[in-house]
Structure prediction request, 774 residues.
Amino acid sequence: MKTILRGLLIASLLGAGAISAIIGRSESQQHSLVFAMQVASGAQKLYEAGQYEIARKALEEQLEATPDSLIVQRELAMQLAATGQVEAAVQHLEKVLDLDSDDAAAAAVLGRMLLKLGDISEAERWQRRAVELQPENGMHHLALARTLLKQQHPEEALTSARNAVRLAPGVAEAHILLALASRSVEDEPAARAALEDALAIDPDNVEASNALAEGFDLQPND
Amino acid sequence: MLLFIVVCGVILACYAWALIVVDPQQPIWWTRQVLLLCLVVAAIAGRSLVGFHPVTRPKHPIWHPALPYFLIVLAAILPYMPSLRVGFLSDDFGLAWAAREADSALDAMTSEAFISFFRPIPLLLWWIGDRVWHGNSLGYHVLSLLVHTVNSILVFLLGRRLIGSVLGGLLAALVFAIHPLHIEPVTWLAANSDLLCTSFCLASLLALERRLATNTTRFAGILASLTFFILALFSKEAAFALPAIAILRLALDERPGIRARLRTVGGAYLVVLLAYGAFRFSILRGIGGYSLPLSFWNTVFPSQPLLVIGDFFFPIHTTLFSHEFNRWLQYVIAGLMAAAGLWWMIALHRVPGRRLWLWLGFLFLASVPTWLFRWQGSAALEWSRFAYLPTIGLCWLFGDLYAARGQNRRGAFPAFVILVGLIVLTLWYQTPWIRATRLANETIAAGVSLVTQLTTSAGPPSLYVADLPQEIHGAPVFANCYPQALNLATGQFITTQVVSERPRAGIHPDVMAATPLRPGEYLVSWDAQKGDLRIIRTGTSRSALISPEEMP
Prediction:
């Protein structure tokens, strides 16, 4: 009996050793990824709870430990962009896109941030990249159309705005941009129809109702 | 003995390490359960190998008979004072609204608020609370604290009898009262069913103990036990493990004539259980409860009781720890907890084997009702309420170990350190619940403001609400009960639907995207940055479809 009990003791020790070896092996392979995921997920929850500074600090500390962690880099970039820290957001978004050049959302946000900084040509480049990666997302076309209008490329802007309206018919802003693009190619009836569509979706849209009342005095927003 | 200490020490150290590095999302999440199984096997084998070495127990000085009660009341109430600041959260809103809508007590008890469950007694208390203190959350919190205090006293009374030591029973009750694993049932009002079920289960066992002590054989002797058992079943279905616990208790008693009553007592409990099962089936038209997929880890392998053991010895709230401490400090704290665990293990040979089986059996049997639940929670996280009843077995083990070895100051010091450490953790772990309350109040205030703003002569608006905060560090905020929260706050019925990707929590965003809004309907989203609800879509006569990716 004593031998069996000793055997059980040794077996449980060996079992614990084997399990620890499995954890250790997995840990060395996934340590950075898993812990980074924990931090990114925790930071997201902190952000949602309105604790932006604590979330940012946690992400920055984790980035010091694992500078190549895409998930942490991305979360930090998105939080910086959402809190209006444009220059810092641009820096981190560029790193995100270095690590994963197929991240359409990051490309779109980078385009938006660059537009805020006034770098229109770079903004256009990233917005085109977002459209290329996610051609079915109407919001990417919408952002590109806005930039193209700013760059005085009415024909291209019109194509993008039409794509935006086709893919996101429920977004009033897409119709307003179509109106702007139509007006820039001097197609007044199309512009009026697009504004009426925008008002049908959002009857309280001040921009569209003023434009209709005051003869299309519209300027593209940032 | 040395081999036993070394093996248990190594396994505890491995578990402490695994607790910090293994995330429940990892493919190797099951390793924690297996390590705990190794620990239990080692403890049983080692204890059997070492044998029982009783010590003469000196009479511990208890200055006054009322002193234990005084200490227990303090321990059960003072660490939970912050919980009085916690308001309604998540399911609380649903229960409070159902109580308000009920026309009578009977109507409240058969409320359809949570149709999968049959818990008339907690629902009755919600109704009484609505009528007596007008649904104020403070009133319910005072009630929960009172029930928790009563439970702690019952743990003392039963522990004193089962352990045979006043000090052992007192220590068990103190650990039960302050353990951070019990924050959820004490702090979250919707979990009052766990508190009540535990009260009645313990009262039933205490009545049984008293009858065994008087050595009566009449059936009337166990009538009180059965009455409390019925009340426990009507509080929460988790009480169905009680007959097995009572049978185990009788089977492990060496006194002459006790085991002879096994058939009578066990039979009476089982008859009540069968009658309850038939009644429940007729009410719910089925078994009720959560519908869960069966799998090896939540059906065959005893994950639930093993994780209760793990969280009892290592009450680490991983999310809070990872935000507040660096990894090395987490290792230090987990190491201290492992040392405390080893202190327990070393004393196992001072406790008689039958009692050890009783404590372990209580833990495993009380876990059976939630055994089928895929429980991966840890201290203060959602689901830790399921550990409230099973942990009593471990609390009695703590008291028994202390009574066996705590005869001098050297023995008293570790117990004192453990108790102080548990109080600190219990106070700290309540902070997410207070934050969750603040966030819930902000979200409700924004909803009320929006409803006021959008109300027209045609009536209040209909809202689809997306991106609601779900939880903060394990403390629930809303789940699917935001509509009832808005109803309670506005005092009227507002047609509200939650938009959420979580199953059973509302309309899925994909379905919402394909849902045209009619005039008077609004899709709104919680903007965490601004702390306000913003309108995403307004209902018009024409359908407006947006895919979730396109939502600004």
User: Anything to note?
Assistant: Chain B touches chain A through 52 residues (CB under 8 Å).
